[in-house]
Amino acid sequence: MKLRNIIAYALLLASGSCTDLSEEMYDRVGSGNFIQKKDNLMQVIGSVYARAHNTTLISWFFPQELTADQILTPTRGIHGYNAGEYLRLNQHNWSGLDRGATMAWTENYQLIGFANHVLAELPDMDYGKLGLTETDKKRHIAEIRTLRAYGYWHLLEIYGGVPIVTFVGDEVKPRNSDEEVYDFIVSELNETLPDLALKGEVSGPAGLYRVTKGFNRFLLMRVLFNSEAYIRKPAYEETRRLAEEIINGTYGQYALDNTWNGPFTHNNSTSPELIFAFPIEKGQRDEKNWWFGGFHHYQTHLTFGSSHGGAGWNGWGLAPSKTADGKNLDYRLGMPFSKYHEKDVRKKSWNYLGNGNWEGMFLQGLQLTFDKKDTIRGVEEYKGRPLVLVDFVARASEGDLASGSMLKGEENTGIRPVKVCPVFPDVEAQYEAQADQPEMRLAEAYLTLAECEARLGNRERAAELVNRLIKRNYKAADWENSALGLPLAAGELDPDGYRMLEEWGKEFIMEGRRRTDLIRWKKYTTDRWFDHNEPSAQFRTRMPVPQFALNSNPLLQQNDGYN
Asked: Phi and psi dihedrals of 71, rounded to 5?
């Protein structure tokens, strides 16, 4: 078993799909009647980590990716319309009843509630009776407070100011201001930093799954980086210093991986690039079928050679780069597949190499069986015919090549990324469900630092940092071939941010940050992408407070524009 540290095992135990520690049940599980030994304590702490993991899935993906320019959920014949929710997300017409606008409220307040329950118990607990020290207690409290701040950051990002609740049984509260929530997060992160461990102080891979100083500073970097969107005050100088410290090892030794997929493969717990990941383990928690399976066609398991994963539900794909008759679309945003250079190794079709290794980040074009001896066949519009995944949206099977609406998708619409929680074939089933879900990668610190440098006028330094990261995506001979012009030149970093957004998009596609980057560059409501052809109202940079929250708390006020 790869999780040797008991708290990491507890995270898996607590986060299993059959475990639902509701607040009512948890209210009866305290130090007096449950936490009698160290294992019990680890399970209770693990429940908070499990709730933190939940906040990164559907409730985060919907607003962060499906309202932005790179990932599309087309209507595929009779599938995917879902009463128009995906169209409303893409066109910025959602309401306070849409789940894409409401789930983040529920998931993050569940995390905060669990954290508050645990924080109410730990200070008075006798750690000595559990074989632990006061240093352990301080560390556990700091971890939970940091995770609570992580939940408040999600809420600030999606909704702006929200009620700050820090105690079990707090009275119903009105919303705190954006500035108050921002200041609370920053204060919590700074206060807890001294009591957290460095990466090397937590033995084995468990150090990847626990809140460390690296996690704490990385979260603060994210908060500072986007402060202008949160509180209308930029903090690029402060962000630059913090990103430099993270890269230089002040808060733990990390390094860029040698390959683009090193942070995502079966043994990614050993990747030097990962600062924090949520643990995945077969039989405990496995997201490839449920969540990331949304990118896979119903027959993709035949491509992967897997009987235990990869048969997706054909929901998401890349937004198109072309029309059905092969012409390039004319958006500056979106069109993600076209942004990858032909020499970029990520642009290859997925191909399994053996021993847990694969090349290519996309399922594209004609789909073959794992042994390459037969073609995959469609099951709907292309039933019985070869399945060809295309980079356009149109009802081509009906002879309609018009490309302009996400309502015209088919079963083969959209190129599909293979990246987070990948599927492995039956012939090497030992790798199945061993890839942890990355949440914090050093690559983000590099691009953050690069953008700060560019914004502060240091474009040469910015280009150098970007090149350090993207060099790994090319063969050495191609990278050094001046005729190809692969290294980023400082002059390409335009003041409007399109080139920087391109690099953010290529590196972090499907990782749940696109909306944040578009907002930071003031493109989210003002620019165009596929089937988002008109600017949207500025108030759409915030999601509405869910109607159920307004109904249950009369002190809450709705965000501007949604009344």
From this structure: -115, 135
Specify the DSSP element, H or E, that contains 52. helix 38-54
Query: Alpha-carbon distance 199 to 201, whole Å?
Result: 6
Q: pTM score > 0.85 for this model?
A: yes
- Report the C-alpha gap between 402 and 323 in whole angstroms: 7
Model pLDDT for residues 130-145, shown as the tens digit of each residue: 999 999 999 999 999 9
User: How is 361-400 classified by DSSP, letter by letter?
Assistant: SEE-EE-B-TTSSSB-BBSSTTBTSB-EEBSS-S-GGGT-
Residues paired with 357 in a beta bridge: 354
How far apart (Å, rounded) are the C-alpha atoms in residues 357 and 232?
45
| Chain centroid, CA 93 distance in Å | 23
Task: Give the torsion sign (CA, 44, 45, 49, 55).
Answer: positive
Evaluate whether 96 touches 102 at the Cβ level (below 8 Å). yes
Q: What's the rounded Cα separation, in Å, for the pair 85 and 476? A: 45
pLDDT at 170: 79
Q: What is the DSSP letter of 185?
A: H
8-39 burial, b at 16+ Cβ within 10 Å, e below that, comes to bbbbbbbbeeeeebeeeebeebebeeebeebe
Total Cβ atoms within 10 A of residue 232: 9
Tens digits of residue pLDDT in 383-392: 999 999 999 9
**Residue whose structure tokens are 């980057």:** 517
**C-alpha torsion sign, points 301, 304, 309, 313:** negative
Tokens at 387, concatenated: 């399945």
403, 392 in Cβ contact below 8 A?
yes
Q: What average pLDDT score do residues 481-486 get? A: 98
The per-residue pLDDT for range 331-350, each reduced to its tens digit, is 999 999 999 999 999 999 99
pLDDT in tens, 197-244: 998 887 666 689 999 999 999 999 999 999 999 999 999 999 999 999
- Residue pair 130/200 in contact by the 8 Å Cβ criterion: no
Residues found in the chain: 563
Extract the tokens encoding 345: 């190794």
Q: Which residue in 274, 551, 308, 271 sits closest to 423, CA to CA? A: 308
The pLDDT tens digits for 263-286 are: 999 999 999 999 999 998 776 665
Residue pLDDT, tens place only, 149-208? 999 999 999 999 999 999 988 789 999 999 999 999 999 999 999 999 998 887 666 689
Q: How far apart are CA 445 and CA 193, in angstroms?
A: 18
Per DSSP, 80 falls in state S
DSSP state of 277: E
Which residues, 6+ apart, have CB-to-CB distance to 45 below 8 Å? 7, 10, 118, 140, 143, 144
What are the percentages of helix, strand and coil residues in the chain, rounded to 5? 45, 10, 45
The SS3 call for residue 229 is helix
DSSP character at residue 170: P
Q: What angle do CA 49, 53, 55 make, to 5 degrees?
A: 120
